[in-house]
Design a protein that fits this description.
By secondary structure, this protein is of the alpha/beta class. The chain has three domains: about 1-135 and about 305-340, Rossmann fold (3-Layer(aba) Sandwich), CATH 3.40.50; about 140-300, Dihydrodipicolinate Reductase, domain 2 (2-Layer Sandwich), CATH 3.30.360; about 355-435, 2-Layer Sandwich (Alpha-Beta Plaits), CATH 3.30.70. It is built from 14 helices and 18 strands. Strands 7, 8, 9, 10, 11, 12, 13, 14, 15, 16, 17 and 18 form a twelve-stranded mixed beta sheet that branches. Strands 3-2-1-4-5-6 form a six-stranded parallel beta sheet, sandwiched between helices. A hairpin with a 2-residue loop joins strand 9 (about 245-255) and strand 10. The structure holds L-homoserine (HSE). L-homoserine binds near residues 161, 302 and 303.
């Protein structure tokens, strides 16, 4: 076919390599389905000579991303390099300014520069597709951007990081340490180049920032997200959660409230047996609540080369099926200049139940003092359990676990300040919010 769509891929890591392989292996099927051939004509990556198990014969090697992005032999620039700034930012911008459609898996880049890049794409009549940037193989961007246009969304939430879900699942199922599980996730190609982005929650926050904008028509605002990662979760928390009928998940949640948008990423207790609690390993899940459709939940592989390449290939095929002169829908679901400012609801007004794990000195009156501090803040307790006392450095230490009924973040923080000031606490309290999704 003479009018083949010519693809330039920048970045040949796990996902970029899987995408080249997919396009090569399914060449005929893709041509039939799109009505034209799709061929990779150019690539660039950090190392030219690395053996990636794919053939780059007949593909032009570019020494830098900008040269590929502006090459006359490329119709679509596919950005798989990652990183919120250079070289990805300039390369994507140059590609759009040179009249090329863009497909990217880079959530960090879009979280920071997405509104600007979407505006350029709109002005140039080009597609900026980023299905692979959120929740790996789950086609949630298409759903939010296109299928739910007639809905008012009230909440979007989910498990958005495969690495964290994999770590929490294996810690619980196999009794492995956090470090062992992270190493496995890295070896399996799930983790970011810098895995602190996974475990500290930044990767989830980048994805949530994009979903929030699509859900509420607000400017992308990654800095307005309350953020806690999973590094402080211990095996004791996981066991206590299970004993009390919960499982710990790293969730991203954005809710429309009277005070603005409440966006948060943090470990949460979800009830055992609920749909979200059953999402294990590298699987992601995204739940949407909207007025017309009701509740939706989609789950599937959230990371890994093939799953993410599947999403990017779908984006490329959409471009292959479109025709020159055809008007493309806006990248952020509505024209970029109609996005409203993101009004951030304060975290202190968040309402919900809480799990609190404290280690205290085992002396008479300790339990009563804790209960008093909770009562002072009008916090109603669902349960309070003292687990077996341990003797440590000649001090009798008692782990105490509290589950509260619905209260506010401010009340919990005040109560814990009160408990601290009573001087019976050993170490810092663990506080995990309880969520019921799906
Ligand atoms: N590191 C990410 C994850 C990859 O573990 O989910 C997909 O963005």
């Amino acid at each position: 076919m003479s009018n083949s769509l010519r693809i330039g891929i920048a970045g040949l890591g796990t996902v970029g390599t899987a995408l080249v392989r997919l396009i090569q292996e399914k060449q005929e099927m893709l041509a039939d389905r799109c009505g034209r051939a799709i061929s990779v004509t150019g690539v660039t990556a950090r190392s030219r000579n690395k053996d990636r198990g794919i053939s780059l014969d007949g593909i032009t090697w570019h020494d830098d991303a900008n040269s590929l992005a502006t090459s006359k032999d490329v119709d679509v620039f596919v950005e798989m390099m990652g990183g919120e700034d250079e070289p990805a930012y300039s390369a994507v911008k140059s590609a759009l300014q040179s009249g090329k459609h863009v497909v990217t898996a880079n959530k960090a880049l879009l979280a920071k520069h997405g509104v600007e890049l979407a505006s350029i794409a709109e002005a140039e009549g080009l597609l900026l597709n980023y299905e692979a940037a959120v929740a790996g193989g789950i086609p949630i961007i298409k759903v939010m951007r296109e299928s739910l246009t007639a809905n008012t969304v009230t909440r979007v939430s989910g498990i958005l990081n495969g690495t964290c879900n994999y770590i929490l699942t294996r810690m619980e199922q196999d009794g492995l340490t956090f470090e062992e599980c992270l190493k496995d996730a890295q070896e399996l190609g799930f983790a970011e180049a810098d895995p602190t982005f996974d475990i500290e929650g930044n990767d989830t926050a980048h994805k949530l920032a994009l979903l929030t904008s699509l859900a509420f028509g607000t400017a992308i605002a990654p800095d307005a997200i309350y953020l806690e990662g999973i590094t402080k979760i211990t095996i004791e928390d996981i066991e206590a959660a299970r004993d009390l009928g919960f499982r710990i998940k790293l969730l991203g949640i954005a809710t429309r409230t009277a005070e603005g948008v409440e966006s948060r990423v943090h470990p949460a207790m979800v009830p055992l047996g609920s749909e979200i609690a059953e999402i294990g390993g590298v699987t992601n899940a995204v739940a949407v609540e909207a007025d017309t459709v009701g509740s939706l939940m989609m789950s599937g592989p959230g990371a890994g080369g093939d799953a993410t390449a599947s999403a990017a290939a779908g984006d490329i095929c959409d471009i292959a099926k479109s025709r020159p002169g055809h008007q493309h829908g806006p990248a952020l679901g509505q024209p970029a200049n109609t996005l409203t400012p993101h009004e951030r609801a304060p975290m202190r007004s968040h309402a919900g139940g809480y799990f609190i794990r404290l280690t205290v000195v085992d002396t008479p009156g300790t339990m009563a003092a804790i209960a008093t501090r909770m009562a002072e803040q009008d916090i109603s307790l669902e349960s309070i359990v003292q687990r077996r006392t341990k003797d440590h450095d000649d001090i009798e230490q008692a782990p105490i676990i509290l589950i509260t009924h619905e209260t506010t973040e401010q009340a919990i923080r005040n109560a814990l300040d009160g408990v601290r000031s009573d001087g019976r606490l050993i170490g810092e309290p663990q506080m995990i919010r309880i969520e019921t999704l799906g």
